[in-house]
């Protein structure tokens, strides 16, 4: 490598590592080179973002690999994922005991770690009328009245999560309705011991999820936003 090439490579490494001195009194030549390199990095990243270029026809100059990688990531962000069923949604409700025991953050963390996207969130005090509609198939059950008392005993945290196969995967993550039979690693298996206080609700079907979301949320409450990681669909 020529002397100029070696100096350029050394300058690139120092710039990327934040070792270039920009303070008054610093070497003006080195500062000028660093500024020029900074502009090249910035312009290259913008080019890859706006043109959608994934590859270049020639090998990138030394020192710009990180910029090209960054530009490609921005391009991935700009283009929506083509994976199937990304927009399937489900309703997850953290029940009064989950809220009172400060489990909200841990439960949200599990769904985020799985790769699902949160598109709706609210905290509320449920009314008996809404619960009657939500649990319409349980009205004739002997435990219905105690269930309603439990669900109105404190605030609920209602969430809408989006992702590939999110309904079925969420049911698996939540665990058996009876915590005594729920596997370790599930929400109920880890945080609950009795069926009357089982921490969380999850929609049991795609159709059921659509009805429950419409019951608890208005369209304006749901935010359709682009994920920075378009390959993340929760299908892990």
From TrEMBL:
Keyword GTP-binding tagged? no
- Judging by the UniProt lineage, the source's domain of life is Eukaryota
Q: Which UniProt keywords apply?
A: ATP-binding, Cell cycle, Cell projection, Cytoplasm, Kinase, Magnesium, Metal-binding, Nucleotide metabolism, Nucleotide-binding, Nucleus, Transferase
A Pfam family found in this protein is: NDK
UniProt-annotated location(s): Cell projection, Lamellipodium; Cell projection, Ruffle; Cytoplasm; Mitochondrion intermembrane space
Q: Could you tell me which residue ranges the Nucleoside diphosphate kinase-like domain spans?
A: 87-224
List the cofactors. Answer: Mg(2+)
Q: What does the function comment of this entry state?
A: Major role in the synthesis of nucleoside triphosphates other than ATP.
Q: Which family is annotated?
A: Belongs to the NDK family.
Descriptive protein name:
Nucleoside diphosphate kinase
């Amino acid at each position: 490598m020529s002397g100029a090439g070696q100096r350029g490579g050394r300058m690139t490494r120092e710039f990327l590592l934040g070792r270039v001195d920009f303070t008054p009194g610093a070497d003006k030549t080195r500062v000028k080179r660093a500024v020029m390199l900074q502009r090249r990095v910035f312009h290259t990243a913008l080019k890859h973002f706006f043109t959608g270029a994934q590859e270049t026809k020639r090998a990138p100059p030394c020192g710009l690999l990180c910029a090209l990688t960054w530009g490609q990531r921005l391009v991935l962000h700009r283009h929506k994922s083509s994976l199937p069923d990304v927009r399937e949604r489900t309703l997850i409700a953290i029940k009064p005991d989950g809220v009172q025991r400060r489990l909200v953050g841990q439960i949200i963390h599990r769904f985020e770690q799985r790769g699902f996207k949160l598109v709706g969130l609210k905290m509320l005090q449920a009314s008996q009328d809404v619960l009657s509609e939500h649990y319409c198939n349980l009205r004739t059950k002997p435990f219905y009245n105690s269930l309603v008392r439990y669900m109105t005993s404190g605030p609920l945290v209602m969430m809408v999560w989006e992702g590939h196969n999110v309904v079925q995967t969420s049911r698996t993550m939540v665990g058996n309705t009876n915590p005594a039979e729920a596997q370790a690693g599930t929400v109920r298996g880890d945080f609950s011991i009795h069926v009357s206080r089982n921490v969380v609700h999850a929609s049991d079907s795609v159709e059921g999820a659509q009805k429950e979301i419409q019951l608890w949320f208005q369209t304006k409450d749901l935010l359709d936003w682009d994920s920075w990681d378009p390959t993340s669909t929760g299908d892990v």
